[in-house]
Write a structure and sequence with these properties.
The complex is a heterotrimer of chains A (289), B (227) and C (538). By secondary structure, chain A is mainly alpha-helical. Chain A is built from 10 helices and 2 strands. Chain B is built from 8 helices and no strands. The chains are: A mainly alpha (289), B mainly alpha (227), C alpha/beta (538).
């Protein structure tokens, strides 16, 4: 499973995959990425991913397909006119495929959020700015607590006549702000003790080190080398332009398998990486017993 | 030191990637994201160099959490959220750097709940910038008083929308032409206006008591913390 | 050898006329277990904070503190940070990070230790305290007791030589508190770490302590072994029941401390077995003010039921205590009775009328009020006076009842825990409710405050108000309540007048009752026991 790898590996995988998705406008590449992204999203989130697809991704595709030809009148194949402006086939297709690209990115982020949980992302962030990472860690710790407090304050205030769910909009807004204000005071006053607790345990001393429960294994090394190689190949194929696909003024690009096979293969290898690694581990595990 | 190595690698590699990206048709999408990340780096480095104390870190964490909570609490009203107002208030009391951190952290933190997307670095950068600006401008006495804050809030609400929409522009249009940009900005206008109005509104209603509360804590930290 | 040697220590907060602590002389030996008690505001916390450089408040300090013969001010930062561990009151406030593993590593990161060392130390402590199973969890998922255990672990990883604890169990329920004390005892006896602890909950720590120090007005007024305390001080109301019985009967010298010793002592006494122990305190009014009939409630449709057919009746002018384990449904029952949550089955009647028939404005204006478990939830203003005036212009009567006169200009969050509780109580009293619901108002309060709280409640019930209180504080219930009801698993499983209630319980009862129940099950307070013994002597 991807999520058991070191955060750097996981992050790099998503960076390369999403880059590969947005780099190419070739329909075959976009569809391949969408298929992979949906596959992983469903694998990890099940029915929720399907619901996400229908409520968030599908509308994006529809909107792009409709809106692009309305604002973009380039393209040579005119389908029909709306109030003297031409709706072109190229614009419709461009809208459709950039919508799909957008949807693919959204699906990639579904797996991204699932695999790179807050503590893993913070591990990475701490490499850039340890203090900011600590602030985020503390915020994440405070949020559930504040949520509980909002409920406590709202019910307490309700019983003394400051109800956020009753009265006119103005009264409710006033009471809402009262709750926010009470929450601010309460949380800030308590923060003094939190700062004490940090100081008592040596915060602010020079030479703070950094601990994480993640270990960098040999398989991470292999995966990272694999990813860098793939990324290089992808950039190289991008520069070479075999797979370039132009929509305007007329569609220009090859859909012939023999022209785009190597590029698609590279992308497929990238998208299938977790499956390949997983299968290899599974086989190894079976045989080692 | 490991951190330095990573930083150096990032600084060398990023321009390289940017150059490569410029040769590929879809490359500017990646390039833009890298630029959003890179533009935050100097701010973080400045903050890190100062060796921040617990009393600087803790209030920012509380305010970031509060900003994130406020974004969730108003989930029923799209864009009508006090998050930027809270960032501005924090910046006014605790200074530009704290404002920047509060802005970036609250966006990142709330996206842990809303889900990350390609817009995350843009939102972080933009909200951080607003916090930074609020801190600088209020220290230089350019924005003073409730009215000044509200005007600043109104403007920054629009700026936030405008910068975050850049991502939509580069993410969706093949060639950036005045028409496409205008179309996207006009489509986004109601949302951005709501955000700007919300920011100004919350600053109008809550800025005075909130600033009082923060000042009190600042004072208390001064008392309890030996310098 | 002394680990701490305190000479003539005085401390005054900036701008304060009176010193917070004055002329403290104290030697703490290596490996000792020292208990400091005193009512809130007596200077205990200030003294403890002076022992840890990082936490010493701003102000005028004089005298000297030596840590292992070295003045505290000359102690290297690293030594002070690691060797002197400090655990604070509120487990929630001292947890910094969102993951358990990170919280454990936090202090060690601060010391700049390499990851492998951190890993080993964290593993060691997790094993010692038996907390390895929560290692990967988020800190907010932990219970209060677990959070405090985590704070303790986060300090122990630093390998302290001395452990200072400032009322560590004040926010915990009795079971969690006992567990915490057991751990402290283990740390003291198995690791020889010096323990200096402040507490209000004394029954369990007393037998563990080598020395008990009583503070009052910033001074040490008594310093002796726990069983030889002679000093007279209001705080002794919180001492273990056996000690109080022993002293109140006029004995001096080594006193019994535990229930076991207390029982051995009581068996040497002659007690009038013929005296009727069961005497009920009051006759109840026949008017029902609150009634819950077969009430079912859950917080969310997918979640388990919290109230499972609760039946509860409260009469006009009575003080009813709801007792029972954590998460048995006491707090939820109060919230339902206050109309904050609506039951999905069953009836709640208030003053004979169904709860649903009341408008909120009517209900919360003179009918029902709820004092939440965290009084801070009620505070929205910046002074005590504004806090009260928010609800009513005429605050005089309530202020004098709750004795808040001297505090009117203070910020609500600058008050002590007990004062905050009183302010919150005053706030709901301004609504002049007929039925007052209290959720653990005596949590973390000292004996003096509790006594005052009991007095306020008595005044109110005498006025004909009905008071229902959820509590873990059996001593308080035994002393003040008219009736008690026991919650278990979402229902009331037994209820009776207080004396009968406790005499029928075998395990869930007061210390005094445990000492004497084999002779006279109806005696539930220290005073009851003392009376029984004295009567015979006449």
């Amino acid at each position: 499973m991807l999520s058991t790898y070191h955060p750097v590996t996981v992050f790099l995988y998503f960076v390369v995959s999403i880059s590969a998705t947005v780099l190419f406008t070739h329909p075959a590449c976009i569809m391949l990425s969408l298929a992979a992204a949906i596959g992983y999203a469903v694998w990890q989130k099940g029915a929720e991913a399907v619901r996400f697809g229908l409520t968030a991704a599908l509308p994006v595709i529809v909107v792009f397909t409709i809106v692009n030809p309305l604002v973009n009148h380039k393209g040579s194949t005119i389908l029909f006119y709306i109030k003297y402006s031409a709706i072109t086939l190229e614009a419709v297709l461009y809208g459709l495929f950039s919508g799909i690209m957008f949807a693919a990115v959204m699906f990639w982020f579904v797996s991204f959020n699932e695999n790179l949980t807050s503590d893993k992302l913070l591990y990475l962030f701490a490499k850039v700015s340890p203090s900011a990472a600590l602030i985020i860690t503390m915020s994440l710790r405070l949020i559930p607590r504040m949520k509980r407090r909002v409920i406590a304050i709202a019910s307490a205030q309700k019983t003394i006549g400051n109800d956020v769910f009753a009265g006119g909009l103005k009264v409710r807004l006033k009471n809402g702000i009262k709750i926010l204000s009470a929450l601010t005071t309460w949380s800030l006053e308590n923060s003094i003790e939190t700062a004490d607790s940090m100081n008592a345990r040596g915060y602010g001393r020079r030479g703070r080190s950094f601990y994480s429960p993640y270990t960098y294994e040999k398989r991470d090394k292999i995966a990272i080398i694999f990813l860098i190689a793939i990324a290089a190949l992808i950039f190289w194929s991008g520069i070479k332009g075999n797979i370039a696909f132009k929509y305007y003024p007329a569609i220009q690009g090859s859909l012939m398998p023999q022209d785009i096979a190597p590029e698609l293969l590279i992308n497929a290898l990238l998208f299938l990486m977790p499956v390949i690694f997983n299968t290899m581990e599974l086989i190894y595990w079976k045989f080692s017993r | 030191m490991q951190k330095r190595r990573i930083l150096a690698a990032a600084l060398v590699l990023s321009p390289l990637v940017l150059i490569i990206c410029s040769f590929i048709e879809g490359g500017w999408r990646i390039a833009a994201t890298i630029i959003a990340f890179l533009s935050m780096l100097p701010f973080y480095m400045l903050f890190e160099r100062r060796k921040p104390k617990a009393r600087e870190i803790v209030p920012v964490a509380v305010m970031s959490a509060l900003a994130a909570i406020s974004r969730m609490a108003f989930v029923f009203a799209p864009q009508f959220k006090p998050i930027i107002a809270i960032v501005i208030i924090t910046a006014v009391v605790f200074g530009a750097e704290s404002g920047f951190l509060c802005g970036t952290c609250s966006m990142l933190v709330s996206n842990f709940f809303f889900g990350h997307g390609p817009h995350t670095p843009w939102q972080m950068f933009c909200c951080g910038l607003i916090g930074y600006a609020a801190g600088v401008l209020s220290r230089k006495k350019i924005i003073t008083g409730k009215l000044g804050l509200c005007i600043f809030g109104l403007i920054s609400g629009f700026i936030f929308g405008a910068i975050v929409d850049i991502w939509t522009v580069i993410g969706t249009t093949p060639e950036i032409t005045p028409q496409t940009v205008a179309a996207i900005y006009i489509a986004g206008l109601p949302f951005n206006a709501a955000l700007a109005a919300a920011t100004a509104f919350f600053l109008y209603v809550a800025s005075v008591p909130m600033i009082q509360k923060l000042e009190r804590i600042k004072q208390k930290f001064g008392l309890y913390d030996k310098v | 050898m002394e680990i701490f040697k305190i000479n003539n220590l005085s401390f005054a907060y900036p701008g304060a006329k009176k010193k917070a602590i004055e002329n403290i002389n104290l030697d703490v030996n290596e490996g000792e277990f020292i208990l400091i008690c005193g009512k809130s505001g007596c200077g205990k916390t200030t003294l403890l904070r002076c022992l840890k450089k990082e936490l010493t408040p701003h102000g005028d300090i004089s005298g000297s503190i030596l840590y292992r013969r070295l003045p505290l001010s000359e102690l290297p930062d690293d030594v002070s940070t690691c060797e002197i561990g400090f655990v604070m009151q509120d487990p929630d406030n001292q947890i910094v990070t969102d993951k358990v593993w990170h919280e454990l590593a936090f202090g060690l990161e601060g010391m700049g230790l390499p990851p492998n060392t951190i890993r080993r130390r964290v593993a060691e402590i997790s094993g010692f305290l038996g907390i390895q199973s929560w290692f990967g969890r988020s800190t907010h998922e932990l219970s209060g007791g677990q959070k405090q255990m985590l704070s303790l672990a986060g300090v122990l990883v630093m390998q302290p030589k001395a452990l200072i604890l400032d009322e560590p169990t004040s926010q915990l329920d009795p079971i969690a508190a006992t567990e915490f004390f057991e751990t402290i005892k283990k740390i003291n006896s198995e690791l020889a770490i010096t323990v200096i602890i402040c507490e209000q909950r004394l029954e369990e720590v007393f037998p563990m302590a080598d020395r008990v120090i009583i503070m009052d007005g910033g001074k040490i007024i008594s310093d002796s072994a726990p069983d030889t305390i002679e000093a007279e001080h209001p705080i002794q109301e919180a001492f273990p029941a056996a000690m109080r019985i022993y002293r109140k009967l006029g004995y001096t010298g080594k006193s019994p401390i535990t229930v076991k010793e207390g029982r051995q002592f009581i068996d040497t006494q002659t007690i009038n077995r013929n005296k009727i122990c069961k005497e009920e305190k009051t006759t109840l009014s026949p008017d029902i003010s609150l009634e819950m009939q077969n009430v079912w409630f859950k917080y969310d449709s997918g979640e388990p039921d919290v109230l499972k057919g609760t039946n509860l009746t409260a009469y006009k002018g009575e003080f009813l205590c709801l007792v029972g384990a954590n998460a048995a449904g006491k707090t939820t029952a109060l919230s339902v009775a206050a109309g904050i949550y609506k039951p999905y089955r069953g009836i709640v009647k208030i003053l004979g009328k169904k709860l649903g028939k009341y408008k909120n404005t009517e209900l919360y204006n003179g009918i029902v009020s709820l004092l939440p478990q965290q009084p801070q939830a009620l505070f929205v203003q910046n002074t005590v006076e504004n806090e009260l005036k928010e609800l009513s212009e005429d605050i005089k009567e309530v202020v004098s009842l709750t004795e808040l006169e001297g505090l009117l200009s203070r910020h609500p969050f600058d008050l002590s825990g007990g004062e905050q509780q009183k302010l919150a109580f005053a706030k709901i009293l301004l609504k002049n409710p007929e039925i007052i619901l209290l959720d653990e108002p005596t949590k973390g309060l000292d004996a003096v405050f509790k006594k005052e709280f009991g007095r306020i409640i008595k005044t109110l019930t005498d006025m004909g108000k009905t008071i229902i209180m959820a509590t873990h504080d059996l001593e308080f219930a035994a002393r003040n309540a008219h009736r008690c009801a026991m919650f278990f698993d979402g229902t009331v499983i037994s209820h009776a007048q207080t004396n009968t209630f406790f005499s029928e319980n075998n395990y869930y009862t007061t210390g005094a009752n445990r000492i004497i129940r084999h002779i006279c099950p109806g005696a539930i307070t220290v005073e009851d026991v003392v009376n029984l013994c004295k009567k015979e002597e006449y």
